[in-house]
Specification:
The chain has ten helices and eight strands. It is α/β, with parallel strands linked by helices. Helix 8 links the parallel strand 7 and strand 8. The longest helix has 17 residues. The N and C termini lie far apart (46 Å).
C-alpha cells in the first residue's frame, strides 16, 4: 500500500476523523443517527415501492423519453445508510448525465443477509430498465463502498442472467473482498472511517451462512464479459489493494477498466469533503466515463 501522508486538501480533516465508525457496539446507534435524518425524501423526489416493499428514490433530470438510466447503490458497510445520504450526489448525476437516477433503499444486514440486499438491487434495476422514459439499452450501475461491492456483484448477476444489458459499472472505493480481513500486512496508519475490525464485522453480518465463493464479488473466478468499469480509490483506503487487484483482473479478462487512484485519500473522502478540488476531480472522472458509456448508439 502506498504512503501514509494525507492529500494536502484532506490533511486537516483526516487528522480529526476516527479510524472507524461502525463496531458491533455502535452499529445500532449509528444506524439511527445516519438513517433517520434521511428517511423522508424531499418533496421533489419521486418514491416508488417495489413488490418486495423496498423503496426506490427517483431523480429525473428531464421529462424526455428514452434517456439513459443510472442505478445508484448507497454505502454503509451493508449495515447502515439510505438513499437520502446521497441526495445531493444523485441530483448531480441526473443533471450531469441528463439521466434518470434510481437510488435503491435495499434491506440491510444483519437482519437481511446475502442474497436479499443484492436481489433488492436487481429488482430496482429491472424496474429502472422497464421505465418507458428510460432507454433500456443505456443503463449503468454505480455505488460507493458496500454499495460499490453490491454494484460489482450486480454486474455479475446481470451478466449471468442475461436479462439486462449494462453499459457500465462505476465502483467508488468498493467493498469487494472479504479476505482483506485476514491480511496481516496492511498498514492502517492514515486510514479513516473504516478499519479491519469494522470490515470483519460487516462481512460476517452480510454473509451469514452464505458461501463466500458465490457471494463475494472478488472471489468470482471468471470476470470476462462484464460491463466496462470505473474503479476509484484512495491510497489510504483499506480497500485500496483489493480494488486495484480486481481492476487488474478485469483488464486481464478483456474488460475495459479505468482506475482513478487518489494519493493520500482515505475512505469516503469525497463525501466528507465534497467541495475539495480532489473530490470534484473524482466526480468529474466518474461522469466522463458514464457520459461515454451512456451516449446514444450510432444508427
Amino acid at each position: 500500500m502506498a504512503g501514509r501522508r494525507f492529500h494536502p486538501e484532506l490533511r486537516h480533516l483526516g487528522r480529526r476523523l476516527p479510524k472507524a465508525v461502525i463496531t458491533p457496539f455502535s452499529m445500532r446507534f449509528i444506524r439511527r443517527l445516519t438513517r433517520l435524518p434521511h428517511r423522508r425524501p424531499p418533496k421533489d423526489v419521486e418514491v416508488v415501492t417495489l413488490d418486495s416493499g423496498v423503496r426506490v428514490w427517483v431523480y429525473r433530470a428531464t421529462d424526455d423519453r428514452a434517456v439513459p438510466g443510472l442505478l445508484w447503490i448507497h454505502g454503509g458497510g451493508y449495515l447502515i445508510g439510505s438513499p437520502g445520504q446521497d441526495d445531493d450526489l444523485c441530483r448531480r448525476y441526473a443533471a450531469e448525465l441528463g439521466a434518470t437516477v434510481a437510488a435503491v433503499d435495499y434491506r440491510l444486514a444483519p437482519e437481511f443477509q446475502h442474497p436479499v440486499p443484492l436481489e433488492d438491487c436487481y429488482a430496482a434495476l429491472r424496474w429502472l430498465t422497464d421505465q418507458p422514459t428510460v432507454d433500456g439499452e443505456r443503463v449503468a450501475i454505480a455505488g460507493a463502498s458496500a454499495g460499490g461491492g453490491l454494484a460489482a456483484a450486480l454486474a455479475q448477476v446481470a451478466h449471468d442472467r442475461g436479462e439486462i444489458h449494462l453499459c457500465a459499472q462505476l465502483l467508488a472505493y468498493p467493498m469487494l473482498d472479504d479476505r482483506t480481513t485476514d491480511r496481516s500486512d496492511i498498514d492502517e496508519r492514515g486510514m479513516r472511517l473504516w478499519d479491519k475490525p469494522s470490515n470483519r464485522f460487516a462481512w460476517a453480518a452480510y454473509l451469514g451462512n452464505a458461501d463466500p465463493d458465490d457471494a463475494v464479488p472478488a472471489r468470482r473466478k471468471d470476470v470476462s464479459g462484464l460491463p466496462p468499469a470505473w474503479i476509484g480509490v484512495g491510497t489510504l483506503d483499506l480497500f485500496h489493494d483489493e480494488d486495484l487487484h480486481y481492476a487488474e483482473r478485469l483488464r486481464a479478462a478483456g474488460v475495459p477498466c479505468h482506475v482513478e487512484e487518489v494519493p493520500g485519500a482515505f475512505h469516503g473522502f469525497d463525501g466528507m469533503a465534497p467541495k475539495a478540488k480532489v473530490s470534484r476531480a473524482f466526480f468529474t472522472s466518474q461522469c466522463a466515463m458514464l457520459k461515454r458509456a451512456l451516449a446514444p448508439r450510432a444508427a
